[in-house]
Amino acid sequence: MTDLVTVGERIAAEVASAIEEAAALVEARAKELCPVRTGRLRDSIRAEVTEIAGDVLRAEVGTDVPYAAAVEMGTRRSAAQPFLFPALEACGEDVRRLIETAVRRAMDVG
């Protein structure tokens, strides 16, 4: 049983690290895609990984700037200039690869 707990702990640690790295990738890509007038919106983009319950983690990439949703989705008066959703889409394969590699690395008892 000790070996299973050790493997489970290793998987959880490796995956947590991969999720943090993945969130940082999405954050960086969102900043690249973000339209810039003053730089406030781009500079406000942050990635945060939080523990929801036990080993369940949630990664969020976003901004607290009030007009971010209007930029992302557009309004009646301005066209959408999406930067968050496209960042996630652009990084999807890298996110999958990071997590898959983390699990394999944790399982490698070598």
Supply the key terms.
single chain, 110 residues, alpha+beta, two-stranded antiparallel sheet, 4 helices, 61% helix, elongated
Q: What report would you give on this structure?
A:
It is a single chain. The chain is an alpha+beta fold. It has one domain. It is 61% helix and 14% strand. The protein contains four helices and two strands; from the N terminus they run ααββαα. A two-stranded antiparallel sheet has the order 1-2. A hairpin with a 2-residue loop joins strand 1 and strand 2. Helix 1 packs antiparallel against helix 4. The longest helix has 32 residues. The protein is elongated.
Architecture blueprint of SSEs:
Elements: H1 2-33, H2 40-44, E1 46-53, E2 56-62, H3 68-73, H4 84-107
Helix pairs in contact: 1-4
In short:
This protein is of the alpha+beta class and about 110 residues long.
Report Rg: 17 Å
SS content category: alpha+beta
Helix content: 55-70%
The residue-averaged pLDDT reads 91
Low-confidence stretches: none
Termini separation (Å)? Answer: 19 Å
- How many beta-strand segments? 2
The major sheet is characterized as: 2 strands, antiparallel
| Topology order in helix (H) and strand (E) letters | HHEEHH
Side-by-side strand order of the widest sheet: 1-2
State the oligomer.
single chain
Residues in β-strands, percent:
5-15%
Number of domains: 1
Count of helical regions: 4
The geometry reads as: elongated
